[in-house]
Amino acid sequence: MKDFIIAPSILAADFAKLGKEVEDVLSAGADMIHFDVMDNQFVPNLTMGPMVCESLIKHGIEAPIDVHLMVRPVDALIKMFAKAGATYITFHPEASENIKMSLDLVRDLDCKTGLVLNPQTTFETIEPVLEELDMLVLMSVNPGFGGQSFIDSTYEKIAQARTLIEHKGLDIRLEVDGGITENNISRVAECGADTFVAGSAIFSKPNYETIIDEFRDKLVSSKD
């Protein structure tokens, strides 16, 4: 399995000082920055656009940026975020008129591809294009708002996804997004995840390094 990646979601950060927040969380040991992009149509909330991504890169952020598109349609936003400097661009299969063509667009724009499965979305939806992915993302909350609790049925789904990935011999990341805390990250890893999105669990803490170090300790223990 791949090395573990901790990806703080800036949806939970203080936007009045976003550049410093991102600098601080990376200095504290985070590996990748997660962007939750919502359009108030596909999901019931409105968040940030490509200008925020571009601004952070101009600010000097060099870490990978993981853009999660909760928008419909996706292709126009894929182009905008690729131009803005995204590393990964992931989207929901329900939001694309042609999943394969949208994935091809991401790759043609030199970004890494990913699909996101809502808690109720089955693997059958994306299995025909699984080999096209650099990352498979499992939502462990219902998308649209930060600060939600982890849905317990996700544990079994993570294990199923890991089995599917290994059965097909694929070299892709398995990311879990939503409700990740110091209390469940080790079990999430034990089930087969290697990439962990956490928002309020990190940004609500007074010391980012302390909580990220605790995450790391829990991840190490999950290997024992």
Strand and helix map with partners:
Layout (H helix, E strand, L loop, with lengths): L4 E4 L9 H10 L5 E6 L11 H10 L5 E6 L4 H10 L3 E4 L7 H10 L3 E6 L17 E5 L14 H14 L5 E5 L7 H7 L3 E4 L1 H4 L4 H15 L2
Parallel strand pairs: 1-8, 2-3, 3-4, 4-5, 5-6, 6-7, 7-8
Describe this protein's structure.
With 224 residues, the protein is of the alpha/beta class. It is 36% helix and 18% strand. Helix 2 (50-59) runs parallel beside helix 3 (75-84). It has a single domain, classed as TIM Barrel. The protein contains eight helices and eight strands; from the N terminus they run βαβαβαβαββαβαβαα. The mean pLDDT is 95. It has an eight-stranded parallel β-sheet with strand order 1-8-7-6-5-4-3-2. It has helices at residues 18-27, 50-59, 75-84, 99-108, 154-167, 185-191, 200-203, 208-222; strands at 5-8, 33-38, 65-70, 88-91, 112-117, 135-139, 173-177, 195-198. The chain starts with a strand and ends with a helix.
Number of domains: 1
CATH H-level homologous superfamily name = Aldolase class I
- Helix tally equals 8
Gross CATH architecture: Alpha-Beta Barrel
Distance between the termini: 14 Å
What is the arithmetic mean of pLDDT? 95
Strand adjacency order, main sheet? 1-8-7-6-5-4-3-2
CATH class reads Alpha Beta
The chain-level structural class is alpha/beta
The residue fraction in helices comes out at: 25-40%
Please mark out the parts with pLDDT under 50 across 5 or more consecutive residues, or reply none: none
Give the H and E element order.
EHEHEHEHEEHEHEHH
Strand content: 15-25%
The largest sheet, given as strand count, sense and whether it forms a barrel, is: 8 strands, parallel
CATH fold node name: TIM Barrel
Taking Cα atoms only, what radius of gyration do you get, to the nearest Å? 16 Å
Q: What's the number of extended β-strand segments?
A: 8
State the shape: globular
